[in-house]
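Case study B.
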Amino acid sequence: MGELRLMKGNEVIAEAAIRCGCDGYFGYPITPQSEIMETLMTLRPWEDSGMVVLQAESEIASIHMVYGAAGAGKRVMTSSSSPGISLMAEGISYMAGAELPCVIVNVQRGGPGLGTIQPSQADYNQATKGGGHGDYSLFVLAPASVQEMHDFVILGFEMAFKYRNPVMILADGVIGQLMEKVELIDHRPRWTNEQILEISGEWATYGKSQNRKKHIITSLEMDSNTMEQNNLRLQAKYERMKEVEVRYEAIECDDADYILVAFGSAARICQKTVQIARQKGVKVGLIRPITLFPFPEKIIAQYASKVKGFLSVEFNAGQMVNDIRLAVNGNTKVAYFGRMGGIVPTPDEVEIALHQRFKN
Amino acid sequence: MAKVRGAVVVDTEVCKGCNLCVVACPTLTLALNRNVNNKGYHYSYMENPENCTGCTNCSTVCPDSCITVYRTKTVH
Amino acid sequence: MSVLTERINQIIKPENLVYAKTPLLNDDAMHYCPGCSHGVVHRLIAEVIEEMGIQEQTIGVSPVGCAVFAYNYIDIDWAEAAHGRAPAVATGIKRVMPEKYVFSYQGDGDLAAIGTAETLHAINRGENIVMIFINNAIYGMTGGQMAPTTLIGQITATTPFGRNADLNGYPLKITELIAQLPGAAYVTRQSVQTPAAVRKAKKAIRKAFEIQAKKIGTAFVEVVSTCSSGWKLTPVASNKWMEDNMFPQYPLGDLKDSGRADADLYRIKG
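Model:
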């Protein structure tokens, strides 16, 4: 059993990064996730593991520092909140195009624009449909607990290097600020130069030796045929993710007449709604997508023939509901309930909404 | 005839005929050829090879690194 | 064979070689327009890297603009940065591999317009990198539009009647700004239009790379350059135009050569 601690979601991101042997963090302060960089600066990992922590002049600079360092084969990350992620969209698109591994944490707040510093899930579409220009996808993980904030940093780096693709941890202000018990992994050393050579020696820019061709990190390709092949290679990668990396949690779905679908902190609320509804005799289950991309469409499609309806519960105007509709493909009713502006609905509100939408 | 001390070799297919080497040449050795290369550029060549001192001014200003310079101390 | 040809052939022998292209520049013809300064500066960087024997330790960062394909020509590892972000990309590379040599290569639009923040902050942090700045007062790649360094009265595709201060503001002397930053170790302005200027510029680039090894702050080399296509002049006339118009606004020489500032000058009292 690893070390147990009571920690804030944001703090544990920093702790997990250090412990899993992350090489660098580049970030810019923004509420509600500033504790990530504050914790890193307080822990001073550069003195022990050699991990670099740098406060950049902007989110734009942060993500491009990540681009450079990731290109060198290092395990690097950044974090921000919604408006900052919009600024990073350029760099994220470049990283997806250049097939660079990294972890990006988005502790979402409400938008559009400067919006609010209160929690939100309104960046679902931005995260799962790319977010920047061009045909690309991120690997998107949605933590629903402080423990998952920890675990997904580790899993995130694993996926980032497995697929040479940026990974986004799509948290929200609730999970970021929440304090919970967390089991921490033991400290792992950063990769040695030899390990980097073994893992990323085929492409990383660590200095060209005489016995190999130069490595170029770029998303640019002027030849249309090659560029189409590059795009097809990316799409094939996303398909592989869809085949083998889907993660979700299904709670009391086997006998359910209605299934709630919710991710992140919304799923915590819905778990209580399941209990409330079942006490009232309504058989309700919950599917919690853990990977938002790849989306657990197969399990939703399977239940579509069995249940009377799905209710997508989101802290936004209804974004994931469209992915559920695509998975259901008209085989049952799909409805949405959500709150915006930083309002977190209560389990009872969700239960009432379920009743209203389906007249059960 | 002047004593030949230097010589340049122009990679005529890389040369773009920008004329900068011709201007930089202090001994009026170089000129642009009346003929063109495969891209249609009037490439640089030694019009007066007997003038060349092998000073490397031409290769120093050449943006396309297409000039190789030789110089001999022996007077032929 | 004429007597002359025979004599030339006697000179063209390996033992008489005084200048050949560095093997760090590959044999592809560069995509630049005839007479473009980029080619000269690329060669100088390649020669410096070769002469210092640091090919295996050097990572270049190319910009968006005409030099986007710089990575095609110099035989080292490269990262191609988004428009203006080269100093941030170089920062990321250098921070995780402080033992390597990292340089960025940017034009005026990239470095002094869209990437101004990244430029100033990388230098203000005293990043131990080399920054090469090609200032030809125009956007070459996109077809000759106004750059931040475009001179008053200069005609470009977006200032067809000449740059007008009332409408377009003033030429940005970003190198003078950079020289004020405490993180800058070495700031110099060079040119490559004559053999003497090229030799001087090469010395400056070599010095910049040597400063990187000393870790005393950012080494910044501006090269006042031409853009024959953008300026709509021949390469030779471009050099003349540059000397007549650019040099008075962007005078050549070292602007700073003192290393990074002493942090105690900026320390709090209590």
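The domain at 3-259 of chain C is CATH 3.40.50.970 (Rossmann fold). The remaining cases will be described in the next quarterly update.
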